[in-house]
Records
---
Amino acid sequence: MPEPVVRKTALIVEEIFHEGGPAAETPLRRAALLCVIKNPFAGSYVEDIAGFMDDLKPLGVDMARKLVDALGGDPAVVEGYGKGAIIGTAGELEHGALWHVPGGYSMREILPSSNAIVPSTKKIGGPGTRLDVPVTHCNASYVRSHFDAMEVGLADGPKADEMLLALVMTTGPRIHARVGGLKASEIKGEDGLR
Amino acid sequence: MTARIRKLVTVMEAVEREAGQAVSPPAVRVCCAALVANPFAGRYVEDLSELIAVGAEMGSLLARRCLDLSGLKPEAIQSFGKAAMVGEAGEIEHAAAVLHPALGAPLREVLGGGKALVPSSKKMGGPGDTLDVPLGHKDAAYVRSHFDGMPIRISDGPRAGEILIAVALAPTGRPLPRVGGLTHDEITGTDGLR
């Protein structure tokens, strides 16, 4: 399988101080790393695509490292994560599914407490298409305060023969989280759920 | 600080390939945008000096955020630009108050200079609207390879009583410039034009 050919990367950091309520002492940060690569399967139906997952692993790890660096370099500050992909119009949704394993693997490789499944979404789209990447707690999926999402996208991609890969990390709960449920302080962190 | 900030979003984009050609070094653009409360939303106020003070604070803060995220040194920056988008309960003159009287000086102070006019743009808009921040060479406005722009978009702002204020910086011009004109290497850099 071919090595991923990167055309463009984007690093996005949001700092959220408040949303109409009391301003937080430490803002919630959400960070996304986007990578636009050539889709090696664009334009034709290819049966055997699974090998490309291995080729994407080093790229994924590099993206995850850059995200942690953008959040200050300490993986312990990361409390939530998510991943997603937008496949250009000459590809198919199944090509986005190639990102599940390497996208999740890369972040769990780097983050110390990451037993939870990495929530994900994907779609077919073009330049300017936006993707709402779901986010949940890294170590216990049921932590209600950390159910979140980050909207990402680029004006100039993905083109028809490209795919946009996204990783998202967050540093805490929604800024005014107050709808109850399992708290981050209450988790056991064994099964990835609670 | 005068400005009441709800959210800061910093984006760095790097183009490594364009039209199949390698871009070396990659063409990089960084933008930081703030969603701030508009103190004059919903009413006509003659004296806009509070927003002028907000502009001064943003010139410094947004430029610093751009440098922090990108890791670029001030002396590496070749281009700059600024823009504002006013939520529906404000007026376009509020963008002018933020951008024109006082934002440029602290921006130039962060960068260690900048002889050229800071190119700017403004509009009224709502959540999810795209603001295209113009970019131009910071010491010589006629450098053709550096005429550029960077889109910024925040899904949840500006709300009616907010203003989105953005500064963009770049250490390079466009990815594959080839339409002639004055180049970065040819400038005198004394009059802000050539």
Note: The radius of gyration of chain A is 17 Å.
---
Amino acid sequence: MTGEGPAGAPLVRLRGIVKRYGGVLAADHVDLDLWPGEVVGLVGKNGAGKSTMIKILAAAVRPDTGHVLIGGKPAALHSPSAATRLGLAFVHQELTLVPAMSVAENITIGPGSTPRWGPFVKRGAARRSAVAALGRLGVDLDPRTRVDQLSVARQRMVMIARGVRQQARLLVLDEPSASLTDEEISHLHAVVRSLRGDGLAVLYVSHRVEEILAITDRVVVMRDGRVVDDRRAAEFDQATLVRSISGSADAAPPAAGRAAADPGAVGERLLRAEHLTAPSGVSDVTFDVRAGEILGIAGLVGSGRTELVRLLYGAEQPSSGQVFVGGRQVRISSPRAALREGIVLLPEDRRGQGNILGHSITGNITLPNLRRHRRLGWLPSPSAPRERRSAMQMIDQLQIAASDLSQPVDTLSGGNQQKVVLAKWLLHGASVFIFDEPTAGIDVVAKAEIYALVVKLAAAGKGIIVISSEFAELVEVCHRVVILREGRLVGELAGGAISEHAILEHCYDAT
Amino acid sequence: MPSSASADPSTSRSLLPAPGRGGRRWPTRLIHLSGTIGLPVALVLAIVGFGIARPATFLTASNFKDMLFDSAAPAILATGLTVTLVMGDFDLSIGSMLGLGGAGAVALMSLHHVVWFWAIVIALVLAMATGMVNGVLVAYAGGSSFIITLAMSTILLGIEYLFDGEQTVYSGVAHAYTLIGQARPFGDINVQVWIALGVAIVAFLLMERSEAGRYMYAIGGNREAARLAGIAVNRYRLTGFVVAALAAAFAGIMITAQAGASTPNAGVPYLLPAYAAVFLGTAAFQEGQFNVAGTIVGVLFLEVISTGLIMLNLSTAVIDIVQGGILVLAILGTRVGRKALQRAGR
């Protein structure tokens, strides 16, 4: 199902690309053609496989099977520099500039890219070349300015100029409009159109449906690692595109996993956030969580989900707004304070923040609970046998697959590492459990186990907050879902109204 | 979820054998062994080697007592340093702190006629304040421990000169003060050895057997994870700097008590050996991990090497080169071993 491009041969052809990460099929026999002088939009949910395709083109990962043809010839994408030589340029979502270097230095950086005289950089030539590249984008910038003094929008322009200057034939723009104003976006679009006029192929990745329809000639929709739609942009409108992204099978009833949207089971209000605002990207968010309730927080990457729950856990401080625990206003100045209020967080970055990887399973589980494992009540000295007993008990309760309590946590699989984090907090006890992407990178079986535990906790009267990029999971377990977009709470769904489609509509502002 | 754990094949089978279990190939086992008993073995080998070379002078009770005596103050200094390093912080001001602690106490007694007891108390209070400033600037204000404590080192040297006027002070030192360096309460062994032993035992219990020690190791293992587990990370890091400064000042007091005199800028030469001892200690007992017991073995190893080399009647030049070379090799050895393990997937 490949859409028709302009006349002539495609510049880049991806054929039968398969890429598997553990048990997850990130790319499932993907075919994709990119013609010169065409802007192609690549859209899909988080985890649909877009990033995998970009990484394969950038030679950051290699496909398990399948191949890439460039100009009709098989391309040997062994390394990122090979991709550059073949005329593929990338503007990644993250800013990849050297902050303390000038605009000119950043644009001309890289082997073979810097005008040199022997070992010396020709500064004048570099500056002129940078100005030329910027001029092609219609951007007027002093090449001597340090990039850390530029706005994010201008930094992005510098990144694009770098790509253009590399004699690129294909330019891949990954979320280029993130954090840009409308005016800056329209300027960016003008640049993209002029590059298309110059005969470049452009692959444009964005979460903004409206933008995709405005700038691209053709739209490729990915879902679960497969290309599910590949048509002229004119054949879509916002509603049909969102439907294509979310999948039409969404009309199916919520799965049985949900502890049923039984409002009678939901008890008193445990936690309430009012007008929470923080410079990290949370503005004026108000919501509450009740006992026995599983609240989902949905949103695209960068919508402020993680930032919001870090405020609730005291890992960051809000600039304004209030938090109430059991009706009482509290100031959560640190994770310690959150723990005192009975709030725990299972962080998104499980390896970097959830566990101390080099330390033993027991040591991780008992770390915040050492006071309860003393040899004697008054002596602050943990008793190893007591710690082992507790750890053993948690391992049985959560079915953690480990052969030895003293083995370091980093020898465990992702699912079992996540269970160790949960074990730590179950042993500690809390009234509100916050799960940030609890199933990221975890296989299907462990996922089901973790959600079974979540449901069990809710049934025991705990308040649960779950963040997940996999909206299907939220549909399955949540009683209520709130949706964040650009740091704001833009929608709330409850009970039977929760569906992937409805969540996506809020995420993409297509309601 | 009945029997679901068995349905996850990726876990149980990919588990590596836990440390200390069999089923490993010998190079891996050897590297692990060298990480836990490498330094103690090296210490024994050094004693045996020098004992064979100089049986009449090296292998005597009085030489061993001397070596223990000489190790006492460095052991206290290095023990304090271990606490900060465990949490991932460097303290480069401990050399100057040692100098200031000793010279400050002596100068207060001699030049300012302060009673010996209060001279010691003032020196220790000064150390505590220094540690707090280091801790606030590094842990709370987020400064680089390397740079902050390096700058602090210069400041402390200046303060020392304010006390002693860059002069050697050798008169007016109270008899009670010199007893800290000269008394032999039990078994004809100098009191400093007993003090160092006591400090080491307390530090060992604190680090290995107390809640605070567990938190400190957790902070060193992953600061952010420790913070999110509710540990008061900054408070412990500040405490670490206070402990290091107090230990340094007390070591300085001990050193000046030995001679009943102080010399200006005496502390800085103690800095590098202290770091050497702590790093060498990562090849003892707890592989790749700073630990108090390892630090003590490291101090003893350095003392045996330097005493032994002197007894071989080598020139100072050769002694310096050999001593430095041993340090480089030892630290390289533990690093190379660790890297090999990482490549092998531990």
Note: Residues 1-23 of chain B have pLDDT under 50 and may be disordered.
---
Amino acid sequence: MTGPAPLSGRQPKAVRSALAVLEEVVAAGPGVTAKEISAALKLPQATTYRLLNLLVAEEYLVRLPDLKGFELGRRAARLALPVVTTPPTAARAVVDHLRGLVRWGVHLASFRTGQVVLVDPDPDHPPSDGALLARYPQVSALGRLLLAEQPDWHALVREERSFTEHTIPAAGLGAVLEQVTGLGLARQCGELRPDRGCLAVPIRAPGDRSLVAGLAIAGPPHRIAEPNTEIVALLEDHAERLAPLLA
Amino acid sequence: MLRDRSPVHGLERRRLGAPDVLAQSVSGAAPSAAMAATPVIVAASAGGATVWSFVVATVLALLIASCIARFTRRMAAPGGLYPLTAKGLAPGAALACGIALLTGYGLLAAAALAGVASYADALLSRVGATDGRWVPAAVAVLVGGGVAVLALHGVRLAARVVLLVESVAITVLVVVFALLLAGGPIPGPGSGEPAAGPGGVVAGVLPALAAFIGFEIATTLGAEARRPFRTVPRAVGITAAVAGVLYLFAAHVQVVGFADTPGGLAGQSEPVLVLATTRGWSWVPVVLDLGLIMSFFACALATTSALVRVLFSLSRDGVAPAALGRTHRRFHTPHVALAVAVPVVVAALVVPVAAGLPLGGVLVTLLTLATSGFLVAYLLVCVAAPVFLRRIGELTWPAVAASAVIAPILVAALVAFLVSRPVSALVLAGVGVLGVGWWAGLRTRRPAVLAGIGVYDETVAADVAGRRVASDTGGSRVGDATGSGAATDLEGHRDAVGRRTPGRGSGR
């Protein structure tokens, strides 16, 4: 048909070539053209074009606006393991200070990798599994901060899953995220675990206000559902103090 | 160099699944309607070679699909074929393609409404509840309104309706035709179809090719389709193949049905009805009418969606009024373009019918005019394909070969088409004169706008790895801009609210 031949496990050479093409785009940098890739890898031109079109169709690569040059697509970012950097001591001191003021668990997550990565989980109140948070950003307060910041949050929500009876279905998520952006505060009550709720505030770079991290507090869902004006104020205050240390 | 938002922002980007995109293309081609109507038209020219004419036409449609796929694997554009043409040929050719598409989609939408009205009229006439003039006109206005409402309420709703309606219509037609085939030839004195040579095949190709028009409608959903570089070329290719198979089947059934009848299929005027009524199946005409109403309705909806996206795109290019490029805040559809286009489409049908012209004649004229528009657009995009590939340094010999084969055939088809239909030629010439005027006006007053024609859904900063969350390079990438990347007015508003946060935080 008109589509490029699909790759199957029976075509090891094609898989190898496709990976080599990806690698070459990274090595050569943004804007490398099909001809250059073909020459560098000594692949036949028609094969290179077909592989490039396939990788573009799958969104591992994107064509730049001149339609000639290639760059790594958003999906390719998932191929690399997110690099987790331990926050500086000064930042951890701020988080610890907050832990001294409240009785609930306090967690710090980085969004630098485009996923929720817990960089300073509360040792006394262990949070939910980090892999779970990264995989289902829509059910955690921290994940909702990240989603609300996306031009198209659907791209990050890969699979819908109902963890508890309170889990909000994906259809209702748009309104929830609107609210997160409006309030600058994300909340979930018993949506991931029935006995746990969470409040989270964004930490933004002081210069360009881009979202770099999130500060969350986790406690019993019925208490989290309350307005918690004082706790939110504490969270925002500490987030403000963390911003210059993390960005 | 990378923009923060797509130049076609406002549409619902990257949301439509593959079945929805395919359904739009299939409905654009409206194979059910063509299955019933086209074989007899082809037989009038091709005689015994009817089936072969459809084989050739299917190959041609697949070649056109391959030329379109050269672009759609590499770029996604709501303007359909004209932004693609712009990447290969001069801006004037792209504008010509845009005008051809407006003509094609507009008249095809009107023809589809005429089809709905015509078969609804046939149904109503069984109970004597129609006058053949005002009733079908009213049906057309009502259906036009329904199409506008569905097209407004989001591309996904429209696509789902189209998918459902067209699947039912095709199933109905295939079942009816399978029953007719199982019945064998209707009894007659023998002789059947007169033999026809290669000349007959060639003469039959043109009407057979006309049965495919609209199969490229998926290209107008480029910006809205999920994984568009895979979905759109496949949808166009599969539509050409599926429609081809359906047409071959329908032609075969009808040729076999009249194998023992003097004059064969070519001697008939309503072959499917004759095949059914000879066997005493009086339910078939009713079921067929219902199936065809559904198919034409899906076609009207799909072509209207395509038409407004071409208008939207021309507006974003700056060559059409800016208002046409606005999108609805909630539904993310070009609502202003809809409000302008639908009344024109409905009027193209209702005015002649209300003036007393026969509905069937109006339907055929609209289809004929639409076909000439599509042929021009196909020709331009097929010529543009190898030039485009050369420009981006990805030219291969199959691309050249495909265009070298298809372009002369399309030129010949267009010439033959216009020569045999002087009225179409006149109308097309009129549209051409208006188009040249438009082009000349743009060239003298806004040459830069004309030169930049061909807006498409470019890669934006958010599509590229490592730029999703703004990095610490500071001012070069502004966080607020990332936040409004999808760039609907809605999110602009969201942003404004979001900025309150730091103020509130520091106030404590």
Note: The domain at 11-77 of chain A is CATH 1.10.10.10 (Arc Repressor Mutant, subunit A).
